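Handout, section B. The chain below has 188 residues.
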Amino acid sequence: MGKVCVIIPTYNNGKTIADIVTRVHAITPDIIVVNDGSTDHTHAALHQLPFIIHRIEYGVNRGKGYALKQGFRMALALGYDDAITIDSDGQHFPEDIPLLLREHEAHPDALIVGVRQLTADSTQRRNTFANRFSNFLVYRTDAPSCSRHAEWLSSLSAPACQSSLDILFTLRSRAVIISRCGLDGCSD
């Protein structure tokens, strides 16, 4: 397995971002946080962390898809081979990262999708389909089957790919191998 980082897009998650980043840091110091124009205290929370992370921050909210693309661009520039994405609102458990990495080792040419065990009762109805399908992913940047996922993902044009679900559908339509990994993360 190559060099792996964790990309954390965030928008107005000042209450949860420090906890999420700290829990990810307990697993790996290779973290890229993309502050997507937050207007709450997310910026301050990130700057108060007692360890160094890579940060991208801009003043206007551009959407999760844009934030992910910026994170992929930085991951490539820093020489990472693989990237895991995780939300910053507490819906994903950083402790599931080793499960994704094991699945990635078993299927090195696949895009790994962490599938949370959700019911309509455990998440807002409008988010159920998308949450079952997306958000917690391992992107292989140099797999033969997809010819550098992250490079390609970072060049996707808006508005075609504004969410993880859009990216996943686009990758699947291009015959990228996708493997599922069951996770314990849940939505409040």
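Note. Helices lie at 17-25, 42-47, 64-77, 97-106, 128-133, 149-154, 164-173. Compare this with the example in section A.
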